[in-house]
Amino acid sequence: MGKGSLIIYITIALAVLLLVSRAPRKSSSHHRHRRLKLRSNFTFAPPTLPHHQQQHSAAAHHEPVPFDPLVADLERRREDREWEKQYIEHTHPELAHHEPAPGEESQPEWEEYMNAEDYLNDEEKFNVTNRLLVLFPKVDVDPVDGFVTLDELTEWNLKQTQTEVLHRTKREMELHDKNHDGLVSFAEYDPPSWARNTDNGSFGYEMGWWKEEHFNASDADGDGLLNITEFNDFLHPADSKNSKLLQWLCKEEVSIRIEGRFENNLE
Ligand SMILES: *[C@@H]1O[C@H](CO)[C@@H](O)[C@H](O)[C@H]1NC(C)=O
Ligand SMILES: *[C@@H]1O[C@H](CO)[C@@H](O)[C@H](O)[C@H]1NC(C)=O
Ligand SMILES: *[C@@H]1O[C@H](CO)[C@@H](O)[C@H](O)[C@H]1NC(C)=O
Ligand SMILES: *[C@@H]1O[C@H](CO)[C@@H](O)[C@H](O)[C@H]1NC(C)=O
Ligand SMILES: *[C@@H]1O[C@H](CO)[C@@H](O)[C@H](O)[C@H]1NC(C)=O
Q1: Burial level of 100, CB count in 10 A (0-12/13-18/19+)?
Q2: Quick one: pLDDT at residue 24?
Q3: What atom in ligand 4 is closest to the CA of residue 227?
Q4: 71 CA distance to ligand 4 middle (Å)
Q5: What gap in Å lies between CA 61 and CA 55, rounded to an integer?
Q6: Please, what sign has the CA dihedral across residues 157, 159, 217, 225?
Q7: How far apart (Å, rounded) are the C-alpha atoms in residues 124 and 96?
Q8: Which residue, 20, 77, 100, 171, has fewest beta-carbon neighbours within 10 Å?
Q9: Ligand 1: distance of its center to the CA of 41 in Å?
């Protein structure tokens, strides 16, 4: 057999392989053209971004939020596990690498995930029509008239997002609340290493993100401790209703802008 025919054989084999691997996918997508999917690419963003950087990335992402709280709950549980795994890899890489069988470890998790997706796509268990019938009255509230308006839908999505954000804040809080009293003191709230180890002149302190002032502004009742609401405001000052914090944020944004101008002028 010559070299030429071997190449032809391989080419044909590859082509057949390609057709075979594509065919079932195509037909299955015809059958179940709307298989519901759980989002699966959560990426670990350390909670250490300075606030305006965080706002920029949030604006760039426009992270979608599930419409159905049931789906949101499934995704949250999945995200929590992913988060835990990545957190350990981040903070204790030695643990993550010494785990005996990572393949075995991840198997039940993956199965559970697939089960959750199967659950969503099993019409007997997760009946989309039924879910809409259940959820509709919860969205149609202002006024209750059998129609969902843009405002009602916006309000609903906002509520889902707030639930999502608060959930992440709770997760974050567990990390910092060292004495587990449900409150975070400034001492408990370690600034991240990059802010701690740098000189005072460098950007960590200048950002104001780790300033005690920011902490104090978030502390609505001024008791020196942040409860979950206040801690959520601390992490997401722009979404806060706390006037003290909003004032601090304005001041901070203005000074950053002035500094930016000043630097631009120097260049
Ligand atoms: C996964 O992440 C990419 C890029 O970050 C994004 O474009 C995509 O929509 C995400 N997929 C899902 C299912 O969320
Ligand atoms: C889903 O719910 C709708 C409305 O309640 C019902 O008519 C339909 O038969 C249900 N489908 C299944 C597969 O149970
Ligand atoms: C930075 O300044 C603060 C007080 O303004 C001080 O407590 C802290 O130790 C200083 N940090 C460094 C790394 O110099
Ligand atoms: C946290 O404290 C603030 C300010 O005192 C208060 O308005 C809020 O209701 C508290 N949150 C919780 C969950 O207790
Ligand atoms: C923050 O508040 C505490 C009292 O709760 C006070 O001792 C501290 O000086 C305040 N820090 C700043 C920077 O305002």
Answers
A1: exposed
A2: 45
A3: 1
A4: 28
A5: 10
A6: negative
A7: 39
A8: 100
A9: 6
